[in-house]
Amino acid sequence: MPFIYLGTGWFIGIWAASALNLPIGILLLGGFIALIGFMLWRDNRRAKLIWLGVLFAALGGGRYFLSLPHFDQSSLSTYNDRGEVTVEGVIVAEPDVRDTYINLRINADQLTRPDRTTIPINGLLLTRPARPSEVRYGDRVRVSGELVAPPEFATFSYKDFLARQGIYSMIDRPRLSVIAHDQGSPILAAIFAFRDRARTVIAQILPEPSASLLTGILLGDDSGLPADVQDEFRRTGTTHIIAISGYNITILIGILAYITIGFVGRRRAFFVMLIGLTAYAVMVGGSASVVRATVMGLLLLWADYLGRQYAAPNALFASGLLMTALDPNTLFDIGFQLSFVATLGLMIYARPFATVTEKWLTRLFSNDLARQIVGVLNDAVLVTLAAQVATLPLLVYYFRQLSLVALIVNPLVLPAQTGVMVFGLMALIPGLIVLPVGQVLGWLAWVFLAWTLGVIHIFAALPNAALPVDYVAPIWIAAYYGILLSVTWYLKRPIDHRPKKIAQLLTRRKAIVIGGLLLVLMGVAWSWQPDRQLHVIALNVEDHPVLVRTAAGHTVLIGGSRSPSGLLAALGGQLPFWERTIDVLIMPRAETQQLNSLVAVLDRYTVKQVMAVDVPTTNRAGNDWQAALTAKALRPIDLQTIELAPTIVIDFDQASVIINDLLAIGASERAAINVIAAPADRLPDTPQVIFGWTSLSDPRAISVPDGGTLDLVLTDLGLSYTLR
Length: 724
What we know:
By secondary structure, the chain is α+β, with helices and mostly antiparallel strands.
């Protein structure tokens, strides 16, 4: 299984380059060492594959760096947040129609700036005109509005989500006009036109929400499903039903094989099915999970065409390697992660679960009856259990809830999905030609659709069908998979080998290595001990919120940032990695743009007390802030003097925070030292020192580089500061 080693190394390399920002020199050194190791151990097959995996890790990291964007004056995102602009370009994806707006992806090539000068540019633009708006793939359009960077929310970075798709700019609710038609690929235009026609036919064949569910299952478009129905799927752990994956591709291969082999023969049928699967993947949107399943399906067909054995694990890792080689950001796609891990879980655990279940049942029933029971349970229960075991931490991490009824609901609705696809296609294909025929056959599909929706609705309505889960740190995800893989490896060993293997793990050399690692961790922990000084740190992030660390180790966060991910990263860099508590969170201003970051802090940290001004709930940010406070059972108190420790007193001068009547976060006459993160209307006369991130024409001012971190240390001997 060489692709398992190569793919694993490749994935680790991409992740490490992204998360750790490894310099290219480290990657080159790692690749060079891997080549030497490969040459030295070329006679040992396993060692050779391991060194190849290390080499591919270096190559994967290099591929990630090559994929990073480079911005200049011709880049669309350079003109974000500079006022209203007019952009021209071609719609390069099928319009994503929602209830009140349409998502359009435009390959922009021309921009008119606020001063009415027009320049050539390049870059993808996401824009959201209001419905109705008659546009389609391939239209050249002109859109006008405020060009902005995508936003970041408290628990989800839409900015990062779009960046992984190459989109760094958006215009919400623009003025839009169509300049020309048919400027895209005629092949894609034909495929999207067919999809649109199929969507219309399904809507005429079936009532809602059955029509929208069938559209999601067959065409990969679930935008028509009502929000409450989508929530029911999430609560019951059945969202995978409306996400096209390997199950759908397998059924499609079976249908295509049944139709084509009898007409053109097995050899020629390969090419027909290859074209059919590729066209289907494009038609349903080409999401990462669809592409992964399609590539594996094509490899299966190719193996059959060549008369070779098909190795599913090799095909899985080969498909992942190919996809991430074309676009390394695919590795971070939620759909790709869930479909990849679920498929791997099926390969590893489905058969062992069936074997163990059969052994248990033979104690109660005859061997034949036990085998028959397992045959019934396998597809309905055991396969679901295998996928759940593999994907559980990812589901909890991304969706923040744990379905308690998933193992009951999935066995009830999964068997019906074959009927949904088969009878749905039987209704759709004739319906495209003669609509009344499709309407008659559609009722066969409706039976299975109604059963699916009905079962999910009943179980979703049960109390505690899904438990909400707080933020789960990635370290616990890694721990889960580490334990799961260790247990799997142990149980895969023959029984008589297990004690020997355990003894090998506990050799003196490995004990020394583990002890060394523990000593390093203890040293790191010791280095984070409070130094008995007061630190006031203006963080290296937009708006420069301030983190106060007292001599006793108490933590105060003052203000927020426009970037939730930036604020969380800055806190992670200043606090010990085990520290998840903030004693006081102070919000002296109702800055709407900073609320999302503070909601993210409430989500990730245990905040003991919130001191804040009143926040209006007239927008999403205000509503999210109030909801987060309610969820954490926190009741903010008004801005008032507090004694954080016997020697630490925090007071206020309007919106400026005063610490020990010595230092002000903001402009204030009361403090000798001012830390000013934003432009101030005037500079106080009294302070002797002013730290500012903007140019200040004052001899007392100390300029801090934009993006720099300021660390003020207050001791009995006075004040010292560090800029970095």
